[in-house]
Design goal:
With 231 residues, the protein is α+β, with helices and mostly antiparallel strands. It has a five-stranded mixed sheet. A two-stranded antiparallel ribbon has the order 6-7. Strand 3 and strand 4 form a beta hairpin. Helix 6 runs antiparallel to helix 7 and helix 7 packs across helix 9. The structure holds iron/sulfur cluster, FE3-S4 cluster (F3S) and FE2/S2 (inorganic) cluster. Iron/sulfur cluster binds next to helix 4 and helix 6.
């Protein structure tokens, strides 16, 4: 079958403004949007810029807006779209070229919440053990692949790019509620800043945007509660 893919293209070195370009692509219904984009890049226009790596929904590198919703191109099947497929870069981040956005600020906000295990005790001989029910508390947020779809979809973030954003809070949550972690005080302090967790207005766009179906708004609620209980 043939499908029309319309891509919002922008090369800051050459273009004054973004423009839409349409491509006819030969695809199978079971192909992914990523396959269609690769076909365009490999067979029609090698200047098209996009990121992808695993092609199986694991690395988070090919998040983009497809027909108005943030999705991973490698998990979006052609057969699920009727008519034209419109592809745009993630909103809320500066465009480097075409579908590639600058995520430096996103990862800076991620690093600000100390997204790693802090434990002041000497490591045991084998591993730091955890009970299954303790692990269950962080099971959901530990599945984040840092695709930035949630942060991009958040109106609070779009209005104020200094807001730490849902992805960073999800990754803070993953360690805040880890029974082996000793870093919650500093982590909560970082989230209690002016542009921290309180900028979340419980709009829930983030939940709908997450390709891993993580309960982001709920994790943010639990993080807010942890802050209130601490102070
Ligand atoms: Fe992506 Fe979901 Fe992680 Fe947000 S929480 S960065 S949408 S995987
Ligand atoms: Fe934004 Fe999600 Fe909160 S969309 S306002 S981070 S619930
Ligand atoms: Fe890795 Fe899509 S290419 S998640």
């Amino acid at each position: 079958m043939k499908v029309t893919v319309e891509i919002l293209r922008f090369n800051p070195e050459r273009d004054k403004a973004p423009h839409r370009a349409s491509y006819e692509v030969e695809v199978e219904p079971t192909d992914r949007v990523l396959d269609a984009l690769n076909s365009i890049k490999w067979r029609q226009d090698g200047t098209l810029a996009l990121r992808s790596s695993c092609a199986h929904g694991v690395c988070g590198s090919d998040a983009m807006q497809i027909n108005g919703l943030n999705r991973l191109a490698c998990k979006a099947l052609i057969r699920d779209f009727a008519g034209k497929i419109v592809v745009e870069p993630l909103k809320g981040f500066p465009v480097i070229k075409d579908l590639i956005v600058d995520l430096d600020g996103f990862f800076e906000q991620y690093r600000a919440v100390r997204p790693y295990l802090v434990n002041h005790e000497l490591p045991p001989a084998d591993e730091r053990l955890q009970l299954p029910q303790e692990r269950a508390r962080i099971e959901d947020t530990a599945r984040c692949i840092l695709c930035a779809s949630c942060t991009s979809s958040c109106p609070s973030f779009r209005a104020n790019r200094a807001y730490v954003g849902p992805a960073a809070i999800v990754n803070a949550h993953r360690f805040l509620f880890d029974t082996r972690d000793h870093g919650s005080h500093e982590r909560l302090d970082a989230l209690n800043e002016r542009n921290g967790v309180w900028r979340c207005r419980t709009i829930f766009n983030c939940n709908a945007a997450c390709p891993r179906n993580i309960h982001i708004a709920e994790a943010i609620g639990q993080t807010k509660r942890a802050l209130l209980l601490q102070t």
